[in-house]
Structures are given as structure tokens and as C-alpha cells.
Amino acid sequence: MPDKLIANKVVEQMLLNDHFSKHMGMELLKVKDGYSKIKMVVTKQMLNAFGIAHGGATFSLADSAFAYACNFDGKVTVALDLSVSYPKAAKENDVLIAEAKQINTKHTKNIKKIIPAGEDA
Predict the structure, then answer these.
(1) 3-state class (DSSP) for residue 16
(2) pLDDT tens profile 51-69
């Protein structure tokens, strides 16, 4: 487990400097060693031509959850590969929650699941 002071500083810096997540209205709900939970409300600007959330908005939520879970220890980590499934379309004003959990820290950091889901999920 990372030093708590270092971890808190990392999270503070990420919150200050993650301009894209701020722009998308993402809110950090919980972060701890190898885990994060964030939420985002789907706005009109995030809708595609069919009136549902653009896949890029949902993907961005998952990517940000990954970033908070994997960078908690202060070692800069970026995604090499990330895939997202879209089992249900999100609509305007839906609240999406993404949880990311790190499962391997030896040589690489793998995320077991990132679950963008409605607030009631």
C-alpha cells in the first residue's frame, strides 16, 4: 500500500490538473489503493445524433476511473489497451457511475472491471 501522504498528494494533483474530467463534469466519489469510483451526469452536449450518450463520453468515464485507480501510488500509469462494452444506452440526465479495481501490480497494472452504470446499479 502506498504511503497515505503520497497517495493523498497524487489524488490532489490529479483533481487539480485533470482538466478533461472536470470539463466532462466527473466527480470522484471514492479512491483508495487500486480502486476508484467516479460519477458523471450525461448532459445534452454528450448526446450523439440519436439522442443517447456518445460512446466517447462513456469511454472517457471509464478511462478516468482507470487513471485514479492506477495512479494512486504515485507511479505514472497510462492505458495501453482499454475496451468498453455498451450493454445499455445512457440518456440525458442519467447519472453514470464507473468503478475500477486494480488486480495486478507486478509488472503491469490490469483493471479487472470498469463498470459504467446508472446510479441505481
Answers:
(1) helix
(2) 999 999 999 998 898 888 8
